[in-house]
Design a protein that fits this description.
By secondary structure, the chain is α/β, with parallel strands linked by helices. Helices cover 38% and strands 18% of the residues. It has two domains: 64 residues; 204 residues, Vaccinia Virus protein VP39 (Rossmann fold). This is Release factor glutamine methyltransferase.
Length: 283
């Protein structure tokens, strides 16, 4: 059966609803819009257009994949973050809007320091960089930042390099486990969205989460493993006035603050747009 655009939108939504996919209409529309190379809001203007056999084939294939809980972003191969478009695939964590709080907080602090006369270049290390969303966004919006992005996954770094080229920024990519690639240097900033999900919580996640790399989520039994590792080495990695900015889970503010305070750091927690703890500053 050959569908027109409106029939395709309705059919796709029905298929996804039958599999209990959240945001079924939105996802069906986005998939069809990508195939037709139009924005979602233009679909209704094209509603009577008949899909070609190839367009219909691809659409049905993509709906089948989404019905099996493959994330929409992996099918479309892209995700928006900080106003920039990033390529994503199964080798990297999908950037979330929550993580924009980290970049926005960092930019605000850096700009406040500029107003106080601190204009020199700053050395920034982004640990567990994944798709490179944090590192690339910082380099894009703050040209004076000399950014290094690290990850244990060579596949993730391939994606990050591709994104840096397509967005047009320079980032130094290094492969290795957590802080290993930045040892022996002193940094103005260490930034990270580390794995921070408790193992028990991870097992309760939506099916889509299990399509993403588990290593990007699991932070040990209590979700705090990577914060402890970083806090234990941070003094040897930072300049005297160096700072650390980290994403945290909404219920981890007190625990992460305590971890860094025990190492002699002062801390401050910043909320996301929903008012939940999201970012911790340690200095």
């Amino acid at each position: 059966m050959v569908l027109n655009v409106l029939e395709g939108m309705r059919w796709g939504e029905a298929q996804l609803l039958a599999e209990k996919i959240d945001n079924a209409r939105f996802d069906a529309d986005m998939l069809l819009a990508e195939i037709l190379k139009v924005s979602r809001d233009k679909l209704y203007f094209e509603r009577e257009r008949t899909l070609s056999k190839e367009e219909e084939r691809v659409f049905k294939n993509w709906i089948a994949r989404r019905s099996e809980h493959e994330p929409l972003q992996y099918i479309l191969k892209c995700q928006e973050f900080m106003g920039l478009t990033f390529y994503v695939d199964e080798g990297v964590l999908i950037p979330r809007a929550d993580s924009e709080t980290l970049v926005e907080t960092w930019l605000r602090i850096v700009r406040d320091e500029e107003q106080q006369g601190q204009e020199e270049k700053i050395k920034v290390a982004d640990l567990c960089t994944g798709s490179g969303a944090l590192a690339i966004s910082m380099a894009y919006y703050c040209p004076k930042a000399e950014v290094v992005g690290t990850d244990i996954s060579s596949r993730a770094l391939e994606v990050a390099r591709q994104n840096a080229v397509s967005i047009g920024v320079e980032v130094n990519w290094r492969e290795g486990d957590f802080v290993a690639p930045i040892r022996g240097e002193r940094w103005d900033w260490i930034i990270s969205n580390p794995p921070y999900v408790k193992k028990a919580d991870y097992l309760q996640c939506a099916p889509e989460i299990f399509r993403e790399p588990a290593i990007a989520f699991l932070g040990g039994q209590d979700g705090l493993e990577f914060y402890r590792r970083l806090a234990g080495e941070a003094r040897t990695l930072l300049k005297l006035d160096g700072k650390i900015l980290l994403e945290i889970g909404w219920d981890q503010g007190n625990d992460v603050c305590n971890i860094f305070q025990e190492q002699g750091f002062t801390t401050h927690v910043y909320p996301d747009l929903a008012g939940r703890d999201r970012v911790i500053l340690a200095r």
